[in-house]
# Entry
Amino acid sequence: MGNIDDRIAKLGITLPDAQSPVANYVPSVRTGNLIYLSGLGPANRPDGSVPNGKLGQDLNTEQGYEAARLVGVNMLARIKEAVGGDFNKVKRVVKLLSMVNSTADFTDHPQVANGCSDLMTEVFGDNGKHARSAVGMANLPGNIPVEIEVIIEVSD
Amino acid sequence: MGNIDDRIAKLGITLPDAQSPVANYVPSVRTGNLIYLSGLGPANRPDGSVPNGKLGQDLNTEQGYEAARLVGVNMLARIKEAVGGDFNKVKRVVKLLSMVNSTADFTDHPQVANGCSDLMTEVFGDNGKHARSAVGMANLPGNIPVEIEVIIEVSD
Amino acid sequence: MGNIDDRIAKLGITLPDAQSPVANYVPSVRTGNLIYLSGLGPANRPDGSVPNGKLGQDLNTEQGYEAARLVGVNMLARIKEAVGGDFNKVKRVVKLLSMVNSTADFTDHPQVANGCSDLMTEVFGDNGKHARSAVGMANLPGNIPVEIEVIIEVSD
# Structure
């Protein structure tokens, strides 16, 4: 597969520092060979801005795709932290629940969710191909456009 | 338990061909003895039509129940594919997340979700009884009425 | 850690009787060392009343926090039942999906979800710290304000 860190760099992505939750939960929990990550919103763009708002009202599908890709950037940072910095321990991206902040009429959730799914595959190859649901939420914390939770399988 | 394929046939159900996603995700991922299936919408009715729309607006609870049962038909097809065609490998239907396309006022999500839960039990007996959540979404891909994701446990 | 039952009593909490679902699903399913609990709503308050309604419309964030804490009370009752009455078998609260009944404008889902997350930590200490998503739903069964599903890890 080549080196995952190199692959991320070649995609022009700088991983953000992983921030810790400010409440009584944690970024990830490992049980057996599975790691459950807490739901993630978009990382900042390189210029420090970050997408915000509701699909079907504030953002179009293309902008939603970009937001989901930025969730993927946060996800890579969190995954790296969860495996102690060694991406080679990631055996499989198992499952994504891609939750899109949607009006009652917006129906292109899969096209938005692809932003994160594509990045996982660009970075991890076939091991990045996951089971997935992509669905519309009434709203999300801080009015972020997309929140995604992920389960990954790690080697021992 | 008797033969699962026979039981499905006696229910008058013909399993659809399992269609592959057209994006960077897969129908199911196995990790250990668990299989995570991607979220599923309703299968076509025998006449080729398929339920569409929002509960509390376009469809009533009874129509939602039918839609959830048709999701179950798709689920049976996907499960069969995931276990290489041998339903006897299904040890347990572990968990359903039943997501109903709902207006802000619709509150009968469990009665809708029962359409799939009932079918799982009719087909798999006690092994089909699962943990479940049934909740209301702002919308779903393509305005489908119900999307359900499932985790199943398989024997080695 | 001290005795979990004592800790619950010191918090002034009386666990409700765990009620069985009236449909074709079950309160919890164990697979390996994981137990998946069905989605839970709030327990009754000591006076028999129970919070109901939508955040951003019927209830404010503080009232939502109380409702999520009451979901946690139900969760403790269900967990106890699932481990045969012995809380010492709970190794870790792995993952919460905290689903808040929200208007299209409500965005304080984490502050609501903390009601349950705080209780899990008060009762189980560091073993109660979980991965989590906190998100907004179009509606929930019976118009309850919060529904939470949880995965716990148990020792053999």
Q: What stands out?
A: The CA atoms of residues 111 and 147 of chain A lie 15 Å apart. Chain A has a mean pLDDT of 95.
